[in-house]
Structures are given as C-alpha cells and as structure tokens.
TrEMBL record:
Organism: Paenibacillus azoreducens
PANTHER family recorded: CAMP-BINDING PROTEIN 1-RELATED (PTHR32097), RING-TYPE DOMAIN-CONTAINING PROTEIN (PTHR32097:SF18)
Domain of life: Bacteria
InterPro entries: Stress/Tellurium_Resist, TerD
Protein name: Cytoplasmic protein
Length: 700
C-alpha cells in the first residue's frame, strides 16, 4: 500500500486492518518476523502486535514483505555495500602507504577493485535502541497530510510527493479529510490544486476558494507545467487545452484587481498569455484582457512596490510609514532598513505596533529573533535563497547599529501579539517545555529539505548518541536516467577537521585515507559505480578532540561533475558505533540518519559535527562547483569554511521559544513532564520531528 510507505517514513506508523477469519498466524511466526526487523533497528508496538496477530498467513506475508522493503530503503539497507577494503577500518590502518598507493593506482587504471578475502567479523556488540512502529489509521494519515497542506511555510519536494500520492490514492469522499478550507501558504495551494487537476479530482467549487491573487493563479499554471511553484526559477509552460485555459482565466478573473500583482512577474505572464489567448475571451474575462494589455504594451501603471522603493531612495520616512502600514507583512520585512534611515525610531516602532497583529506568525517570530540579537557582534549574515536547491549565502555583517531601545520595544510587541494570538486557541492545560528544544529551529522554510530517515530543520543541533566513533557512509550508482546514461560517476566522501577558530587541521578523503595523529580513516576511493559503490569514514571522537579539533564538516563531492539530481540514486548517512570493530561495516540498526542527495549541484554538506558539544548540526546544504577549482576538498576550502562558520553560529527562532509562547498563552507551565497534560520535548509528546503538526498547529 503506497500510503503505508509514506506513513511509515513520516510517522513510524502503518495501517493494518484486523483479520476476520480464524486462520491466524502463529506466535512463532510473528516472533520470527519481529526478530528479523530488529536487524534494521525496528520493532512493533503492543497495539500493532495485537492487530497483526489477527492476520492470516497470506495477509501477513503481504504486509510484512512491503514493510521490510520500506524499512530497508529508509535506513539504506536495500543496497549492497562493498568497500574497497572489506576489513575496514583495521585493514586501512594496518596497510603500508605503498600498498594503499598501488591499490589506488590499480583501481584508477583498471576500474577493478583489489581482491581481498574478508576476514570473519565478530557479531555487533553495540546495544541498539529499537524504533517502535505503531498502529495508525487512515483518518490519522489524512490528518497528517492535511497538516502538511495547512502549513504556513514552504514544504519540501518530498512533502509534495507525499501529498500527491495521498490525493491519488484517496476516494472522492475522502478528500474532505485531506483538503482544508483554506491553504494559507500559496505555493502549497498551487501545487495541491495542480495535483487535484492531474488526478481528475478538481472542480471550480472545490478549488476556487484557494485563489485570491494573480500570483496564486500563476503558481497553478507553473504546477500544471511541472515547474517551480516558488517562482524562483522560470518555467516553460506547457500547451493548455481550451478547457484548461478557460479555468485559468476564470480563476484569474475572480482575483480582481490583478494588474499590479501580474506586474511582479511581468515576463512570465506575457509568456503565459501567449498560451492562454485572453483576447479570445475578452467579453467573458474583461479584467484579464485589460491586465494583459497593460503588460504587453508597457502602459503606465503605478505599483505599491515602486512607490516604496522611491520613498526609500529619497529617505522619505513618513511616506514609508504611511505606505508600509497598508501592508503589515512588508512593513515587518523592511523594519530594520527603515530604522536605519531615521533618528526618530520611536515613531517607526509605534506605527509597527499598530499593525503588528496583521503580520503572520512566522514573520513575527523571525522579526523577534532578529531584533533580540541585533546588537550582538556577528561576523557573518547568512541567507537561504528562495528555490528548491539548499544553497546558502554568507556575507560580512556590516549592518550599522540601531537604537537599542527600539529593538527591545519591537521584541516586546512581537511577544505581546503572539501571546494574544495564541490565547484564542484551545487550552493546553498543564504544559511542560523541555529546555533542550532551544537547540532545534522552527520549521519556516522546508522547500529545499532533503528526504531523510528523520528530517529536522536546517541549523538545528541534535545530540550525538552514545558511542565514541561516528561512521559516515555514502552510496551511489551510475546508470540511465530519463533515457540518458550518466557515464562513469565518482562521488567522494570526505571529512574536514577544523579547530575552534575554523582553521583547517586535516582532512580525511580520497587524497588522505588515514590520519597519522588520531583515529580517522577512509575506506578507499572508488571511482565508478555500474552496480553501485560505497565509501565509509570512521572518526574516533576522543582522539580527534585531543588534537584540538572542534568541528568536522562532512561533504560529498561529485568528482565527475554530474549533478546529484541526474543520478539513479545517491545517499549519505552516519552511524554511531561503540565497538566499531564488531558487526558488519554497515549495520542498519546503528544508522542514526540517512539523507537522499538529489540536489542540482555537485557538492553537498549534509551535517557539521561539533565535537566539543557532541552535537550534529543539521545543514543539508549544497555548494555550487567553483569553475577554477577541482571538485574536491582542497578546491572548496574557502566555501566550506564560510558555510561552516555561518551554520555553527546561525541564530534562528527555536522551538523552545515558540512553545513557551504557547504555554504562556494557553495553559500553566509545570516543571516536569509527569505533571503535564501537554509535553514538548526531544523524544516525548510534540518533538522536533513532528514538523507537519508544528507547521500547521503552532505557527497559526
């Protein structure tokens, strides 16, 4: 069942209907199956065991075979791992430099791996904390999908795939459980309606409510053309059929006035107009015809943004205040710039306070965080450009100082508005908020988030589990994608060590398989993958810290320069190992996380390790290949240091602050989880991994 694949990955739940007959599976059958999935790091909950017991042998085998297949993909155990050195890590550590060198040359010349017979390995000696798979329901699954659709922020490509699959699988009478009355984030609206249309489950009554502006309609046309609904990149529109053209024009007509909004994306609307032929419907959609006429013929039209930019150009603060109060969200985004222009900050703050209640929760949280730390010294400012690729831009922080009292007042306004807003929501009773949630960021923009075993928000710091050795792994495959062969594909896994000042100490990569200072070792460079290939890196944390290393940046480089999106499959992950010499090199049950690498770039930075704080900083970033450098560690040092510094010092609104605002507004704060009706913590109640629920219910 497709929805079980999604449900399992997102919530560790599955839907199982109770068996009706008397021909049930035996206890031994169930026990054997559960013991087998322990190898993958999972087990069944009591409720799931109770339902599975009622299945016939045939029903159970169908359920179990799909479950195991899904679990294998989730942890990366669906492929074969054959590193260059089968007795890694000891084999690499003990071989001479000459043998390592000659083996590498042999592989580069022949593309064959050196032949070694693997020695026997002792069984895994690490204790495994099994992840529990629970029993879910179709109603709960639909609620989870609806929460995604209701998100007040952008969602990822994986989220969209899951929504599309849920819509495809849903019966018409089940759509009410999936579709909310309103879709607040318009990128999501365009995609969802596009999915409904694709699966012939849309009508004007159902979808018309989701379109308020011309840009909403443009996003639908983009989604219908399989383009980027964020509009960060231009889309080649497909040829729409006559009924489809009428639908788009009808939706556009109901959004009047539309001209100013269309001018924001003037060239795209002109191209779309060439396909829609609005003049053919000039009597039916007169507003559309008039707007397209202004765009095509460059007729004068005064816009809000044009007026704002002109006022900024002439430093006309009073005009800016009057204009921006008309659009509170824009006021919030321009607040810092406006405060830098005037010596009368109190008037700007007063004006913002009058309209702050009309600003969305995500924007208010970001404004609050920005001004709370506005006076702290920061070397860099980091931006995440809009789009589907997880790129980041870091620039020197040259912002001039602004009035400290104004900053404090703005923080107070944001707090007051948010608490008042949250107080209108249902009471939560007694509330416990774990202080460790300060390490987890609020999910504002998941647009470029990669599919992962456990997805969290970029910049969050996850505590390392027990164990002194972290083992990174990567796997990739070359082959045919969309009718075109990739050619030879060489993906290099690397780890770069930095001290606390971000000075490079050493790197472990294909050019340096092992360290002479501490226990850090690479499994060997493989440069072709017709059947799939893998690389591993072991890092012994205590020995590395003893030599002054604080940060380790894990990177994946496409040496043969194919972008990851053009590969059949590529992923990276890591395991925590207490006894790295025990068990197989790849032990699924020890996998902490696995990330699918699918970006349209050649360099990926999945995580940064902070060894002193024993934290994994979730970065999920991509770097663009520099044309003057080789695509390897040495060639991208500058870019990685910049990203490393920026991500390690990143300050974004955190979940602790968000949930504390809800606690103040909606209940009574208590000291322990045992006393609480509502729990917000790392592993119980609402957790940082409940992204769908946080986006839909706590960013209102």
């Amino acid at each position: 069942m497709m929805i079980n694949t999604i449900y399992l990955r997102r919530a560790n739940k599955v839907i199982v209907n109770r068996g009706q007959g008397s021909n049930r599976i035996s206890e031994a059958y169930l026990a054997t199956a559960m013991k087998n999935i322990e190898y993958l790091g999972f087990t069944f909950s009591h409720h799931l065991m109770g339902t599975v017991r009622t299945l016939s042998k045939e029903q159970f085998e169908a359920f179990y075979s799909q479950l195991v297949a899904d679990l294998r993909v989730m942890v990366g155990a669906h492929v074969e791992y054959k590193p260059m050195y089968p007795d890694f890590p000891v084999q690499v550590m003990e071989q001479s430099d000459a043998e390592l060198y000659l083996n590498a040359v042999y592989h580069y010349l022949t593309l064959d791996l050196p032949e070694y017979k693997a020695a026997g390995r002792i069984p895994l000696m690490d204790n495994i904390n099994l992840k529990v798979i629970d029993l879910g329901s179709k109603a709960e699954f639909h609620t989870m999908i609806r929460q995604l659709i209701e998100a007040k922020v952008s969602i990822s490509a994986t989220d969209k795939e899951d929504i599309d699959a849920a819509i495809e699988c849903a019966d018409v009478d089940e759509l009410d459980g999936i579709l909310p009355s309103e879709i607040p984030f318009k990128e999501n609206a365009g995609f969802v309606v596009g999915s409904l249309l694709k699966h012939d489950k849309a009508n004007m009554k159902l979808i018309g409510r989701y379109f308020k502006t011309a840009t909403d309609v443009l996003r639908l046309a983009v989604a219908w053309s399989d383009g980027d609904v964020s509009l960060a990149e231009a889309t080649r529109f497909r040829k729409f059929k006559r009924p489809e053209r009428r639908l788009l024009l009808r939706l556009l007509e109901q959004c009047c006035p539309i001209t100013e909004d269309m001018l924001r994306y003037k060239q795209r609307w002109i191209r779309l107009g060439e396909i829609l032929h609005p003049s053919e419907y000039k009597n039916q959609f007169a507003g559309c015809k008039e707007a397209f006429d202004i765009l095509r013929n460059n007729k004068p039209f005064t816009t809000f943004n044009g007026s704002v930019e002109l006022a900024f150009q002439y430093h006309n603060v009073w005009t800016l205040i009057d204009l921006l109060m008309q659009r509170p969200g824009e006021f919030a985004r321009r607040l810092d710039h406006l405060l830098r222009l005037t010596e009368h900050a109190e008037y700007v703050v007063l004006a913002f306070g009058e309209v702050a209640s009309q600003v969305s929760t995500p924007v208010l949280l970001q404004v609050k965080k920005h001004f709370a730390h506005r006076h702290e010294p920061q070397d860099l400012r980091i931006f995440f450009p809009k789009g589907n690729i997880a790129k980041a831009t870091a620039i020197p922080n040259t912002l001039p100082e602004i009035d400290a009292a104004a900053c404090q007042d703005i923080v107070g306004i944001c707090d007051q508005v948010l608490i008042q807003r949250f107080s209108t929501l249902p009471s939560l009773g007694k509330i416990y908020v774990d202080e460790r949630l300060k390490s987890y960021n609020v999910p504002f923009s998941q647009r470029s988030a990669s599919k992962a075993l456990r997805t969290i928000v970029r910049g969050s710091r996850v505590p390392m589990q027990e164990g002194d050795t972290i083992r990174f792994f990567s796997w990739w495959k070359e082959g045919t994608v969309n009718g075109k062969h990739t050619g030879r594909v060489d993906i290099d896994l690397s780890a770069v060590m930095y001290d606390r000042n971000w000075q490079c100490v050493e790197h472990i990569s294909y050019t340096n398989l092992r360290s002479s200072k501490y226990q850090a070792v690479h499994s060997g460079d493989i440069v072709t993958a017709p059947q799939g290939a893998c690389e591993f890196i072991d890092l012994h944390i205590p020995s590395i810290v003893d030599h002054g290393v604080r940060y380790i940046v894990a990177t994946l480089h496409s040496y043969t320069v194919q972008p990851y999106c053009d590969l059949p499959e590529c992923f990276v992950g890591w395991m925590m190992r207490k006894k790295p010499g025990s068990g197989e090199i790849f032990e699924p049950a020890t996998v902490e996380n696995k990330i699918d690498v699918t970006a349209d770039t050649q360099i990926a930075i999945p995580v940064i390790l902070d060894l002193v704080e024993r934290a994994v900083i979730w970065t999920d970033l991509s770097l663009t290949r520099h044309p003057n450098y080789y695509n390897n560690i040495e060639g991208n040092q500058k870019g990685m240091v910049l990203m490393g510094k920026a991500m390690a010092a990143l300050q974004k609104p955190d979940l602790y602050d968000l949930f504390m605002l809800h606690a103040k507004a909606r209940g009574e704060l208590v000291d322990t989880a045992d006393q609480a009706d509502a729990i917000f913590s790392e592993g119980k109640g609402i957790t940082p991994y409940d992204i769908e629920q946080i986006m839909a219910e706590y960013l209102v």
